[in-house]
Amino acid sequence: MVKERARILVVGGGYVGMYTALRLQRKLKAELRRGEVEITVVTPDPYMTYQPFLPEAAAGSISPRHVVVPLRRVLPRCHVVVGEVISVDHEVRTAAVSTPATAEEGMAADLLGYDEIVLAPGSVSRTLPVPGLAEYGIGFKTVEEAIGLRNHVLEQLDIASSTRDPAIRDAALTFVFVGGGYAGVEALAELEDMARYAVRYYHNIRPEDMRWILVEASDRILPEVGAELGRYTVTQLRRRNVQVLLETRLDSCADRVAVLSDGQRFPTRTVVWTAGVKPHPVLAATDLPLTPRGRLRCTAELTVDGAAHAWGAGDAAAVPDVTAADPGTDTAPNAQHAVRQARTLGDNIAHALRGEPLETYAHRYVGSVASLGFHKGVAQVYGRKLKGYPAWFMHRVYHLSRVPTFNRKARVLAEWTLAGLFKREIVSLGSLEHPRAEFELAAGGKPPHSPSDDPKGSS
């Protein structure tokens, strides 16, 4: 039984934040009903994004609304606050929270008190000071970015089909992806697959007219699936006329020209940046111990080392891997660990409130799966290597089993079934990003936003 009323603050609504709150709802059901516990989740968005489905959402295989999980629906016993924690003073147990309401009221932030805090803000895109990247680069970490990129790619086909200028046409049909990890490889493979299908409906564009380029600074791609499957992936992409440039960096993309470290220059209207992530900057605005890389220093019980009543997991936390052969190894910052850490974290908070012993987080890495487009993929699971259709099928089965809620599982499965029975949808709805443009023009305002005006061409 909980000794006193406990206020639990969960910072972040991603994998760890949502699953921890979900676990706490179940483990502390009686305490919540009696009013002995209250759980507050502060998140920038009122939904959790299932990021492994972003490439398929970009390719049109899954509807965007089925890639996200509404937090208020799955966390009915929690208080969900849409906003951002901008700083934490753990010594006095308060967090400064900025919300849409504080902005309207002209306030910097509200102070929110807590007794236990779970720091799970996740990560943000890791960028480098590359000239032109801020102006012309496109990210691939949110559902909005994924759908914006889909619209952008289809609009480039429209531009290439309608222009008489060969330079504009070539730039529109050149797509540069930076980063050879999951996000970069899966996004490129799915969108190349979609674009290859789409050009059959353009009378003057052939698949070989498009140029797809993957730039990776290291000597391999998809390191998570092993060297052999990484080489296989490179071979398969090159057979699809994708240029895979290893040990190469993007030096500049100013003036819509991608300049690479090997001297190659590609005029392009599309530069997609997926070159890694870094811990959320809010961690630096706390008085909690951090590693040299800016992650929370945590114990195997998922407590913040040396800070009572503070907890961490996921991308934001450096959690010791007790199953690793080498001491000092941390668990990888991926979804497989995040979901499992959240369960242990929820259990341990309940144990702590009841004065019970804490559990140690221990999970041996199972393996990895990656999609390379429709019916194509690679996988390494329990030491077994799969390629092609079996790997693609395992990718879908695994992620269908992991996407939260039965509602989402059923909807995703239905969409996959329909996608297998009917042809792809290749409609660009870029105007959704600027829905008032036409009305503004009719009302005497500025003219509608056009793709050529946008540095990213994503309107």
From TrEMBL:
Residues 439-459 are annotated as: Disordered. Pfam families: Pyr_redox_2. Residues 7-341 form the FAD/NAD(P)-binding domain. GO terms for molecular function: NADH dehydrogenase activity. Keywords: FAD, Flavoprotein, NAD, Oxidoreductase. It comes from the Bacteria. The keyword DNA repair does not apply. InterPro entries: FAD/NAD-bd_sf, FAD/NAD-binding_dom, NDH-2. Belongs to the NADH dehydrogenase family. PANTHER family: NADH DEHYDROGENASE (PTHR43706), NADH DEHYDROGENASE-LIKE PROTEIN RV1812C (PTHR43706:SF45). This is FAD-dependent oxidoreductase. It comes from Streptomyces monashensis.
